[in-house]
Amino acid sequence: xxxxxxxxxxxxxxxxxxxxxxxxxxxxxxxxxxxxxxxxxxxxxxxxxxxxxxxxxxxxxxxxxxxxxxxxxxxxxxxxxxxxxxxxxxxxxxxxxxxxxxxxxxxxxxxxxxxxxxxxxxxxxxxxxxxxxxxxxxxxxxxxxxxxxxxxxxxxxxxxxxxxxxxxxxxxxxxxxxxxxxxxxxxxxxxxxxxxxxxxxxxxxxxxxxxxxxxxxxxxxxxxxxxxxxxxxxxxxxxxxxxxxxxxxxxxxxxxxxxxxxxxxxxxxxxxxxxxxxxxxxxxxxxxxxxxxxxxxxxxxxxxxxxxxxxxxxxxxxxxxxxxxxxxxxxxxxxxxxxxxxxxxxxxxxxxxxxxxxxxxxxxxxxxxxxxxxxxxxxxxxxxxxxxxxxxxxxxxxxxxxxxxxxxxxxxxxxxxxxxxxxxxxxxxxxxxxxxxxxxxxxxxxxxxx
Length: 450
Prior knowledge:
Layout: H1 35-40, H2 45-53, H3 56-66, H4 78-83, E1 95-100, H5 109-116, H6 118-132, E2 136-141, H7 146-161, E3 177-182, H8 192-199, E4 223-227, H9 228-240, H10 242-246, E5 258-265, E6 271-276, H11 281-288, E7 298-302, H12 322-326, E8 336-341, H13 346-360, H14 366-383, H15 389-401, H16 411-425, H17 427-431
Parallel strand pairs: 1-2, 1-4, 2-3, 5-8
Antiparallel strand pairs: 5-6, 7-8
């Protein structure tokens, strides 16, 4: 997988601090940027500014004014989330958690940052912890990211030895300790309260909200959970200012800053690029990913992970930001798109996806626990040509009953969004799996709305 990070597909030298706040420090050889090199590239300058020249409330206001939104997929305004932490100074035990449990299929953007720029994440967490008055932080890391764990632990040791972590950092009087915690490999840990439960040593089930983590989080204390890419934006915002950051996105974008975006599948140049929010999906697909390989045609695409809906080639005119993708009927998600070529059978693809989502359900609520395996069973029947006409109705009702607001967390709604869009755009492929003799004598499935 090639990883580029410039506005021009092959122009790495054009990368600069002014245009590529997250990736301009990347080495051409792909090796990690360690402390000495990171500091030579203006590393920890923003942390010095935040700790020595800014009050905690000023940092929160700066991030809020920047319009930075969460980069994990939900897109909630980061500064607003920070402002939910209690103002009561007596609550002096607070935690900052970095959600690095990157298990969304077709997503690897956080891995790039952690493996090659570990100090950028550490600096982002240090500034964020100062803003939140958090004395301890945890990087909750996907267990399979062995290289990221090794590089983060080395970088934390370097930062601690240099006085950038620990007690009285930079003589500011602020204390902050940071630890890497590797998870056991469950997709549901990407949901922030399931992550908190897992960190505490509990089963990774989502929690009821309210109370929200800002009030009652890890070990019952105020807690803020942010994604890796979100935290990696913070140093540049603090260092360069709000006006600069808001100028990075395309003028017609409703979001601010840059975003790690990518394309995989049978494209000519799969990879990741740091690009301004608001570019069109067509630019990403054609100018950066190079379009489809010879002999393959684009059938459909997903804009940001397996939990986002399928879109057609004509939807490539959509702008890559949350509002732009919403206009064509789905979510921006992680921003790493998948190109599906003309040889792929959509029933088989959806069966594979729903098997993953069914396996990764925590089993806490009935619609998700029972509905997702039901979708797998139905799709297997259609895939093998043993389906019945009723199966399409079953799938449509499952999409409805597992949709937003019908389940305990967002796992099931994300799982059925691609299913619903695939039926919408490629119904004939599902109908092709119907056996005219199937279902005779079988009792009709009954759905009851609670």
